[in-house]
Automatic annotation (TrEMBL):
It is found in: Membrane. It comes from the Eukaryota. GO terms for cellular component: membrane. PANTHER family: SERINE INCORPORATOR, SERINE INCORPORATOR 4. Its main location: membrane. It comes from Piliocolobus tephrosceles (Ugandan red Colobus). Keywords: Membrane, Transmembrane, Transmembrane helix. This is Serine incorporator 4.
Length: 361
């Protein structure tokens, strides 16, 4: 931004309020508030014909202007009032988003496996598709574990990284064993390795996201200072901020939410290769419990009024994106606390570890 415009708006020449971690906090605060307000306004909405449903399906230009207004308003809040409180709100919301995402991924894998196993009972080609998908996800998880050991550990240090990676690999093996254990299959007959492979791949992604946000370790080897536990850093040198991994993490998490939200696990589904958009088996309303018309009845009865229902919960949709906005905020700032004038300060909560502790629970 030109320094003249910045000086005119804020009385500053370098505009730190419009860049860095402080700007991330303010923009995400506006985005999160926008989705939270819509989630509250759309609570207990059951029909798409309701006037409140238009808040979700219409008024796009007005909503865009309102969103921009909220983001602009966040830049007018003093730092000492916004950053301390919003830091802890962001940590709680980001952690809740990871928990919610794990639940959605689990439901997604279960519905996918149920859909394809139904087809496998009729055609062997479906069984081959399940096998190939399972092997593919396990291959990605295995390659990810090898790369994490290769680039995020070192023989001279990185003990915490080694412990986290080892525990997560053991955890992936444990859930794979439990998914085919006889006692589990008695309660869940459709339990299988496909769900375990998807969850294992997701755990490796969470581990990568956590390790990439941890600070490097500095040790002395052969009289020289070396920086370990992060790829690309071998000597004592200033660590430049890199948000590429954080942006990749945010993109993957948004995509996972959209894919998982497409799955309707509460409905009966036909086998479909497009597992995120299954064919829904809808019962014929005219054949359900309809009384036979008497022979002497002159006029046929009026057709039953079909009640329209929402294809998904609008309020829950916006609440998920409220949590996602908080997750993006803390991810882009590496879970650090932002001080006055947007300066980054170490957080009292170990940054980068929350995504690592979650799979262990």
């Amino acid at each position: 931004m030109p320094s003249g415009l910045c000086a005119h708006l804020f009385g500053l020449s370098d505009c730190p309020v419009l860049s860095g971690s402080g700007a991330v906090y303010r923009v995400c605060a506006g985005t999160a508030t926008f989705h939270l307000l819509q989630a509250v306004l759309l609570v207990h909405l059951h029909s798409p014909t309701s006037p409140r449903a238009q808040l979700h399906n219409s008024f796009w230009l007005l909503k865009l202007l309102f969103l921009l207004g909220l983001c602009a308003l966040a830049f007018c809040i003093p730092d000492e009032h916004l950053f301390p409180a919003w830091h802890y709100i962001g940590i709680c919301g980001g952690f809740a988003f990871i928990l919610l995402q794990l639940v959605l991924i689990t439901a997604f894998a279960h519905s996918w496996n149920k859909n394809w196993q139904t087809g496998a009972a009729q055609d062997c080609s479906w069984f081959l598709a399940v096998l190939l998908a399972t092997l593919g996800f396990y291959s990605m998880a295995g390659v990810g574990a090898v790369l994490l050991f290769r680039y995020y550990t070192h023989p001279a240090g990185c003990l915490l990284n080694k412990m986290i990676l080892s525990l997560h690999v053991c955890f992936c093996g444990l859930i794979s064993f439990l998914s085919i254990a006889p006692c589990i299959r008695l309660k869940q007959p459709r339990s299988g390795l496909l769900q375990a492979s998807v969850i294992s791949c997701y755990i490796m992604y969470l581990t990568f996201s956590a390790l990439s946000s941890r600070p490097p370790e500095r040790v002395i080897l052969q009289g020289q200072n070396h920086t370990l536990c992060l790829p690309g850093l071998s000597k004592m040198e200033p660590q430049t901020p890199d948000t590429s991994l954080a942006m990749l993490s945010a993109g993957i998490m948004y995509a996972c939410v959209l894919f998982a939200w497409c799955v309707k696990v509460s409905r009966v589904e036909k086998p479909s290769l497009c597992f995120c958009c299954p064919e829904i088996v809808e019962a014929d309303e005219g054949q359900r419990g309809g009384a036979a018309r008497p022979a002497d009845q002159e006029t046929p009865p009026a057709p039953p009024v079909q009640v329209q229902h929402l294809s998904y919960n609008y309020s829950a949709f916006h609440f998920v994106f409220f949590l996602a906005s908080l997750y993006v905020m803390v991810t882009l700032t590496n879970w650090f606390r932002v001080g006055s004038r947007g300066t980054v300060q170490p957080s009292s909560i170990p940054q980068g570890h929350m995504g690592s502790y979650l799979p262990l629970s």
